[in-house]
Amino acid sequence: MTGPPSLSPREARDRYLDHRRTEASASSIKSWHYRLKHFVEWADDEGGIEDMRDLDGWTLDEYETHRRSAGVSAVTLNAEMQTFKNWLEYLARIEVVDDGLPEKVHVPGVPDGEDTNDEMLEQGDAYALIQSFRENPERRGTDKHALLELLWFTGCRVGAARSLDLRDYHSEEQYVEFRHRPGSGTPLKNDSDGERAVGLPPSVCEVLDTYVDQYRTEAHDDGRQPLFTTVQGRPAENTLRVWCYLATQPCLHELCPHGMERDTCEFVHVHHASKCPSSVSPHRVRTGSITWQRDMGLPAEVVGERVNATLEVIESYYDKATARQRLEQRRRPYIENLQLED
Questions:
Q1: SS3 label, residue 146
Q2: Which domain holds residue 252?
Q3: Residue 217 carries which DSSP code?
Q4: Residue 26 above 80 pLDDT?
Q5: Mean per-residue pLDDT for 99-109?
Q6: 80 and 154 share a domain?
Q7: Same domain? 242 vs 139
Q8: Of 128, 133, 119, whose CA–CA distance to 243 is shortest?
Q9: E strand or H helix that includes residue 175
Q10: pLDDT interval class at 116 (50, 70, 90)
Q11: Quick check: 307 and 193 in contact, CB under 8 A?
Q12: Distance, CA of 259 to CA of 220 (rounded, Å)
């Protein structure tokens, strides 16, 4: 009986991802593919690795040094090397590489404070942007306005917003229903665990109603009717990101902080919207929304259910309230419960 065959880096990567595909979400597989492709490309171009059996401790260190020299952040390098180690652990289990090889992978730590990004759409900016849309008859209910309201008031991911069908928006009952539909190209990040119904304030439903009645283009997608549409049908995630960049430009409600004139600024065009120094991505809207929902008194458990995130993730990566904000807006109301009774 022969042992396992020799595998090239590319073959080994593809086998690993195929193995994980049944137990991991599509977004996780995509992320691991992206992280491991750096090694595959390095092995082809510089490492001279044609057979995974040729890997040794020196080669692993050379690859880590290569990634460090590329200028990646500590967080990115940590994630890449951890995924690399997990991959080698799988290959060791099926005897493609030596048992001890995974332990030779150095997974660098992340300095305190570098594992999160504090950039977010601030509450005051969100209020100003939303009010500017609501008060402008030409912008109220447009696709960009509707998306911004949905992202801010639900804290959902952009992929979840894209997944919504017209039937998932319940105007009279005032909620949206996020459903996992991988078979037709709209999976949720956490698969069926990401399915949930999220309530909306009446004012948000008024905006969504205006969008549906006046601005939404009738379109079908595999027999479904997307909530957000373009003339080509359901928009791609990148299209929604561009809408978000356009919807969060401060010049919509105030003078440009960068001295530009909106009529002549290139950043107001779809191809350059992401280059605006003050606009933010859907992820930053999500971060701001989660912090705002906590500041408004919603318990962390309730926010977690609304945005489909664990308490640990919310506290570590999304909730950006300062220590003083946590005291004044969240804990001080409970101080009266600590007084001695007469």
A1: helix
A2: 123-295
A3: P
A4: no
A5: 91
A6: no
A7: yes
A8: 133
A9: strand 175-178
A10: very low
A11: no
A12: 42
pTM of the model: 0.65
Q: Which residues pair with 165 in a beta bridge?
A: 226
Instruction: Let me know: does 270 contact 240? Beta carbons within 8 Å.
Output: no
Q: What order do you get walking across the sheet with 169-170 strand by strand?
A: 169-170, 175-178, 196-199
Answer for the pair 319, 311: CB distance below 8 angstroms, yes or no. no
Say which DSSP state 158 is in. Answer: H
Q: Are residues 88 and 144 in the same domain?
A: no
156: left (phi over 0), alpha (psi -120 to 50) or beta: beta
Residues sharing a CB contact under 8 Å with residue 209, sequence separation 6 or more, in sequence order: 141, 171
Type of residue numbered 120 = M
Q: What is the pLDDT of residue 297?
A: 81
Mean pLDDT, range 142-166, rounded to an integer: 97
The length of the chain, given as a count of residues: 342
pLDDT of residue 89: 94
Structure confidence at residue 3 (pLDDT)? 67
CA–CA separation, 264 vs 301, rounded Å?
46
Asked if residue 184 and residue 55 are part of one domain, the reply reads no
Question: Can you state the percent helix, strand and coil of the chain, rounding each to 5?
Answer: 55, 5, 40
Q: What is the pLDDT of residue 231?
A: 92
Judged against a pLDDT cut of 70, whether residue 282 lies above it is answered with yes
CATH number reported for the structural domain that contains residue 135 in this entry: 1.10.443.10
What CATH number is given to the structural domain containing 17? 1.10.150.130
Say if 14 falls within a structural domain.
yes
Of the residues 278, 295, 312, the one at which a domain ends: 295
Q: Dig out the tokens for 243 from the structure.
A: 């809408």
Judgement on whether residues 252 and 152 belong to the same structural domain of the protein: yes
Residue 313 φ/ψ, nearest 5 degrees: -65, -40
Mean pLDDT (whole number) for 132-155: 96
* In-domain check, residue 172: yes
Q: For position 339, what pLDDT does the model report?
A: 53
Q: What is the mean pLDDT of residues 297-316?
A: 86
48 and 180 assigned to the same domain:
no
When pLDDT is cut at 50, 70 and 90, the band that residue 323 belongs to is low
Tell me whether residue 79 is exposed, middle or buried, using C-beta atoms within 10 angstroms of its C-beta: 0 to 12, 13 to 18, 19 or more.
middle
